[in-house]
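Posting for a labmate who doesn't have an account.
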Amino acid sequence: MHTRETNPVPPQSRKHQPGEEQFRAIHPEDVIWKPFPAFPPAARLAILVGDPTKPGPYVIRVRLPTGTKMLPHKHPEDRIYTVISGVFYIGLGEQFDETKLTAHGAGSVLILPGGQPHFHWAKSGEYITQVSAIGPLGLAYIDPASDPRNDSKAPAKSDRGS
């Protein structure tokens, strides 16, 4: 026999994450691409959700134009990459080795554990990946001489759209 519950438990209200307290949509034409000091000069980063400099979830996009390489580096945070467009070539290890690259087309999802040395290359054309993680974002090059932050060149201007 089914009896009616007289004291239903009300749904628990949870605190929203930064940037997630109200419905919104982010369209490709709304994405603001900016240089990022830890990236090669031609690469761009867009922050979609959260603040990757602070603790908490964030979603960013990374755009590398044809031929651009991200030399071996690692991140302290676990990351989930989704390939938005192009082919994302990634290899694991502390040395850039083209034979270790694997190709992942649009729609692919890759899980990269924190601390895993890796490298990427826009080998066959521009690619865009979306990264979801829990911040703060960290990026340490295996060879400090590969780190663009150690270069005195001025960053390029921002781009709107893709």
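Reply:
Got it, the structure tokens are right above this. The mean pLDDT is 90.
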